[in-house]
Structures are given as structure tokens and as C-alpha cells.
């Protein structure tokens, strides 16, 4: 289907290139799965895991397997025949967002678990400012996660090809076809213009939130490790 609709002039060498990219991704995913499951089984057998850590290990291994299942489910959507559609064959943007979201959760949970084991927890006095900083950090995390998921919708719909100017989209701040689909809610997930517009707004909001978090953290006495983490977050947000 893809060959007839889009890549009818592709050579065998060009096909092999994208085939090996997909094959390498699948093999790397399986290596990652083994990197979780085999050490987990060994440590469990040797009795090196505490009861709470066993729960974490089971959850992480389950997430790895779920991630692989989501990957298969996503790719399957791009191979389905759609005789009533003349659109370019592509995977479902919903399944792509789920696959990316699951990967982010897995990575974040793995990092959190690893750092919790490697680094001692700071015992800080629960001041009002510290509580506000923690709440704001959680909100910023959710905003960044939402921004990343919106990027999956941009990729799934090729929405990045619609407008390539910034900060305006073409000649306008708000494009004419922003709400072209009906019902209205469809635009958020299926209208390439709206998807790109939302991703831009969320990206700007994320950088603003990270900057505000950094400035607020400067007013609070924090351990060196925490201050370095907040500064690194701002630096990575600017690079991104």
C-alpha cells in the first residue's frame, strides 16, 4: 500500500535503509527488555530485593512488556488496508502518542527508582515555600509530559509540514483553519493545523513554567544537588 501510494519510485537500497532502521529499533527494544527482566530475576533469586523494591521491579518489568505491546499495536495501524481512504498510509497518531507516553513513564520511573537507591534523601523542613515549590514542580512535570504527547500527534499527522514559520503561522497569529473540523473536539487530535498550534503553545508554556520554577527556587534555601537539578532543567529546556 505504501509503495503504491507514496514510494512507488523507491529503490531496493532505499527500502533496506528504512527496513534496517525499524529492525534495529525492534532489536534494541528487546535488548532493553532483557536488560530489565534478566537482572531483576537474578536479584530476586538471590534475595537482594526488599519487599517495596520487588513491587517497583515488577511494575517496571510490566511496563517494559506493555511498551513492546503498544509498539506492535501502533505499527499494526499503519499496515491496515483502508480502501475508502486516499490518505498517505501512516500509523495512528493516538497509538503513537500512547507508545511515546508509555516510554516516558517507563524512563521516568526507572530514573526515579535508580536515583532513590543511589542517592540519600534530603530531610528538609516542610516550609510553606518548599511545599509550593514541590507542587509547582509537579505541575511543570505534567505540562512537559503533555507537551511531549502533543509532539507525538504532530509527528503522527505530519503536522510540522503545514506551517514552517515562527512565531506566526504563515501570515497570521491564529490560522483560519484552526477549527475547520466538526465536531469541534476533533480539531485537537485530528486537525494538523490545530495540533501544530497546540504544540507551539504548550512548548512556550513549558519553557515559561520551567523558567518560573527556576526563579522561584532561587528564593528558597535548597541543597546543592537540588539547585543543580533545577538549573540543569532550565538549561535543557532552553536547548530543547
From TrEMBL:
It is a multi-pass membrane protein. It comes from the Eukaryota. InterPro entries: COX15/CtaA_fam, HemeA_Synthase_type2. It holds the Pfam family COX15-CtaA. Keywords: Heme biosynthesis, Iron, Membrane, Metal-binding, Oxidoreductase, Transmembrane, Transmembrane helix. GO terms for biological process: heme A biosynthetic process. GO terms for molecular function: heme A synthase activity; metal ion binding; oxidoreductase activity, acting on NAD(P)H, heme protein as acceptor. The keyword Membrane applies. Its cofactor is heme b. It catalyses: Fe(II)-heme o + 2 A + H2O = Fe(II)-heme a + 2 AH2. It is found in: Membrane. One of its GO terms (cellular component) is mitochondrial inner membrane. The chain crosses the membrane at residues 27-44, 56-75, 95-119, 140-163, 199-217. This is COX15 protein. It comes from Smithornis capensis. The lineage of its organism: Eukaryota, Metazoa, Chordata, Craniata, Vertebrata. The gene is Cox15.
